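Researcher: Let's do a round of design. I'm pasting the structure tokens now; please hold your answer until I've finished.
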């Protein structure tokens, strides 16, 4: 298969950026059979990032595999406000780190920080270990982190599952068919994961620590400070209550 034939095949399959996608496949694979296989895989609807095994996110290249949540560029909006809020952070955690997009980016942007990521999805964690740059832990939200971090987290970030269960069908069908429900389903109002994280936040955050996340504008609960806005997305901060 030539490059031009790949572009035609991808375009026929409905890929809007067929040339860019063929370029990514050509850059990733040298073998003609692997290139043709990747074009077929992508044409069947698998997200490009899972086909090529990587996604560019902020300053890092994130390792990916079939079935693993694909980092969304919209979550890059979290990085700048998080770094601006805690430029001297010593301990940073990414709750629900997936393949490591936010954790690896923050490790790169805050080189003196000790960065930890935690997730329950072992397939995503295997990618996170390949992405590298931070400590990877298996477990549920805060409880998956080493207990030595309790009360010492200067900056916690999360791009949580926050799609209301009833709206899951709004997700683009390529992603919907190839990502676990666990990575997107936020329960009836989309806020179950946020409530679970907030329940323990103050016991893990350091005295002046902050938790930063991205939500849809209409989901922002009381008590959150809005620090950035991008269309319908808002970056919000919860600061540890003074004790
Ligand atoms: C929207 S994805 C974000 C992944 C990653 N932070 C990113 O931006 O690419 C949400 C992540 O939360 C993880 N997750 C869901 N429930 C969890 C739990 N109870 N504890 C830890 N992680 C969880 C999912 O496996 C998924 O990787």
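Researcher: That's everything. Go ahead.
Model: Designed sequence:
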């Amino acid at each position: 298969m030539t490059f031009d034939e790949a572009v035609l095949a991808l375009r026929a399959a409905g890929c809007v950026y067929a040339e860019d996608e063929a370029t990514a496949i050509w850059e990733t694979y040298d073998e003609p059979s692997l290139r043709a296989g990747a074009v077929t895989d992508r044409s069947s609807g698998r997200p490009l990032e899972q086909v090529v095994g990587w996604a560019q996110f902020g300053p890092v290249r994130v390792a990916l595999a079939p079935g693993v949540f694909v980092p969304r560029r919209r979550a890059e909006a979290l990085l700048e406000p998080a770094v601006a809020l805690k430029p001297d952070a010593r301990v940073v955690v990414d709750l629900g780190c997936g393949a490591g997009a936010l954790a690896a980016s923050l490790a790169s942007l805050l080189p003196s920080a000790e960065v930890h990521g935690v997730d329950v999805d072992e397939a995503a964690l295997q990618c996170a270990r390949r992405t590298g740059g931070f400590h990877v832990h298996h477990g549920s939200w805060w409880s998956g982190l080493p207990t030595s971090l309790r009360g010492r987290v200067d900056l916690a970030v999360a791009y949580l599952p926050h799609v209301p269960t009833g709206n899951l069908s709004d997700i683009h069908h390529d992603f919907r068919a190839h990502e676990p429900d666990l990575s997107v389903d936020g329960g009836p109002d989309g806020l179950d994961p946020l409530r679970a994280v907030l329940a323990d936040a103050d016991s893990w955050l350091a005295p002046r620590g902050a938790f930063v996340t991205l939500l849809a504008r209409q989901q922002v609960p009381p008590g959150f400070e809005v620090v950035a806005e991008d269309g319908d997305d808002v970056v919000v901060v919860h600061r540890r209550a003074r004790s």
